[in-house]
Prior knowledge:
Blueprint: H1 10-23, E1 31-35, H2 43-48, E2 52-57, H3 60-69, E3 74-77, E4 88-94, H4 103-116, E5 117-127, H5 134-143, E6 148-153, E7 165-171
Amino acid sequence: MSPLFHQLSDEQWRTFVADIAEALELREGDRVFAVHCGSGAFLRPLHEAGCAVGGSDPDARLIEIARRDMPGGEWSVGDDEAPSGTPWDVVVACSVLDASWSLTDAGALLEQMVRRAGAALAILDVPEGLAFDERWFLRSLSALGVATARLLALRIDGYETSGSRFNVIARLR
């Protein structure tokens, strides 16, 4: 999770997650996987709302927190490995992409997310001004066969974004 999100109240965070869930058209019972999920902060409200959740993160300590807080979730330690054979309706990456990512790595992440997602994917809290800008996302997702992609400005009361971050919501069919 972005260090900037730590300044949000629980209510502000849950509103953000609910807004993304609405944009993704999530329903109770949908399966949501988060790449680089950390301790599962983005997934927790979805889990409480009845979604089946899972995630991967390179930090085993964070995965242990997710396992403890969301028993029954499917968790793995690694860069982005989803448990094999698990069908996921939605794949999410929140606050993952930053200036340390190359275009090649960002493209590989998108490709992996599209392969794992059955219905939709979301790349959240992307800083503007990177090589993978809004146009890059639209071109890359189109090349991967995504049916529709929307770019949404990241707007959260109390989160100082100054219009400098955006979310990508893509439907595969």
